[in-house]
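Morning. Coffee machine broken again, so started the prediction first thing and wrote up yesterday's gels while waiting. Chain of 256 residues, entered below exactly as on the submission form.
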Amino acid sequence: MTVQFERQDGVAIVTLDRPETKNAITQEMRRQLWEAFEEIALDADIRSVVLTGAGGEFCSGVDVGGMGRGGVVGSMDRMHTIGRIARAIYHLNKPVIAAVPGVCVGVGWSLAMCCDFLLASEKARFALIFRNIALAPDGGALWLLRQQIGAMRTKELAYSGRMVHAPEMQALGLALEVLPPEALLDRALELARSFAGAPTVALGLAKRQVEAAATNSFDQQIELESLMQPIASRTEDHEEGLKAFRERRKPAFKGA
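Came back before lunch.
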């Protein structure tokens, strides 16, 4: 298996595992990655996710050895699989944290940005290297970047293909934290465990509200809230939250 999948205390750890290629993604890895996130979506015992890479790197993009095969049909198939992975991560109704230890380029950067949070090692470096092989970006990269840093900065990164190091990522608001390499995974797991102990349904609804806010008017957002809060108010976690508040204790959420 070139995508490792393990569970720890309500947290799924998904690891891209081809360290000899800096975790370049093959067609088989795409299938494994999509299947992992589909399983996570349907497993109520998994309440948060860490996505990372083996060997001190995150992902060097798509394995170029598989490019150009199968003509236009083959390319369309590859784009379809990349697209469904990006959607599976972005739309997952559970918190997802990208822990980026090193190189994170091409579609690797796209998938990291599909996560809710990005934690970067001090050694991490990012680039939209698509221009270097005369391709347009994939995995939703430019949509995700434009949402966060605007059109002009997005174009500069896409047109130049230049390397962006961890401090600049944090300055741009693209990385939540920059950490020493040895502290990266521990911090990602700490954050993931805190989310795994949170009210999962309420966090999932909040995630959808943030997503919708990019295009909703204020009135549309208020209408969305009016539909979502009644759903959350019928959960066991809401009842537990109210009970804990009245009893002045920490709530024990179950994700239900």
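Residues 71-90 form the longest helix (20 residues). Going to sketch it on the whiteboard this afternoon.
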